Amino acid sequence: MRAVRTVLFLLALLAATAAAAQVPAQMPERAPDLVLTGKLTGADHHRYTSVPFRVPRGVKRLVIAFDHDGRADRTVIDLGVEDAQRFRGASGGDKALISIAERDATPSYLPGQIDPGIWRLTLAVPNIRAKAVTNWTARLWFLKAASPPTPASVIDRGAGWYRGDLHLHTAHSDGACASQSGRRVPCPVFRTLETAAARGLDFIAVTDHNTPSAVASIAEAQPYFDRLLIIPGREITTFFGHFNIFGTGEPLDYRITPNGPVTFNAIADRVHALGGLVSINHPGLPSGEACMGCGWAMPNADLGRADAIEVINGGAMALPGGVEGPLSGLGLWLRAMAAPQSITAIGGSDNHDAGRTDNAPGTIGRPTTVVHAEALTQAAILKGIRQGRVFIDLAGDPAALVDLRVETGASQAPMGGRLRVAAGEAVGAHVSASAVAGATLDLLVDEKLLARVALASGKDVHVPLTGLVTGTSVVRAVVRDGRGSIVLMSNAVLIDR
Question: How far is residue 434's CA from residue 254's CA, in Å, rounded to a whole number?
Fold first, then answer.
């Protein structure tokens, strides 16, 4: 009986290995640069086959998708990769897609420089039946960018509002938390992800200072966190201000000096070329020993190159004046919008301790940036931010909502958009909002309060704007709780009269 159970266990293990190899994986969305094929027979049982291929110059990331047609016959092929100098790893038969770059690699493989020259696939055959014939295919991509390909699939809920935190620190910079014994230790990325998932967030950006070293941890963790999209990011900290970049793990020189070769404008252009976004962090904070370089005093910075401004920072929420005071980012955002610039207002907890569970400002998800996106993917979330389809939830209420549109008889613009209005043309603002009992809705043009409405009187509010807007105007909404504190902040619609 024991022998039967052992055989059944081994068959189940073999079946699980074969099934794992068939799990769909994300890969570059273009044709491969090289396709290798081959055939294995019963004569290859318990043998190694070495398959050479040439890696060209300038490659920053190697991606390999491997498949074969012998699973029905119980063929098992274990995959390995070696470069000209060393063995780079082996993943057995359980990974259909592998990725290797200088700073990160699929688990089972070693990161490192992708040197040009002859590399090899190593195919080990622990099982193939005597009369079996198995055809295998390896598709290879030689990528010129080190950023990982599209993250592993996260369970998508389609178009809708997605809740996230865009400013988080881990052990890869100065994030710290309590260890099992209560000591303060560098806090691993996994702890931040666990806390974000427990808070019910849909996406986060890991933004450690100046280094992309967290990318490897993100790539390893993403398949496990299949309901939490993890966006690679970075907080660029300079002597003249801090700013986040989202959506790329490429190395970037951050050493900005007055009249030097590295500038904010150049970094922003590079990030945009890589498909990422740029956001100015906590611009209203003072710079000094307590927060070195935190205030925004960037030399020759073109605000038009910024996609967003961190209007609400978790650490600054409790400072004098709160989110409407001089230390918030609201002032710079309104000045930029009056320029006018189409810049999105966002929030970020700026969390440095993933173990905090008190839900106070600065804990993960306080504040929350809520983005309307077509899907829960990195591209869709970044697009939603770029378009301004965003509101900020300061209280961390999953049911909260504030959305805005402005319309004339002939056209309309959603939150984040622009609307051209002819002289004398009727124009009105429509706000959809949901918040705590006793909340009120404020509709503002620039910094002037136009209307205050109790939300208990209705979720959808219409406010006529005819005759109240002149020139270029910034229309926006905030929701206040019963004590008058802001709990929700919309983005704006720009009206060009």
Answer: 41
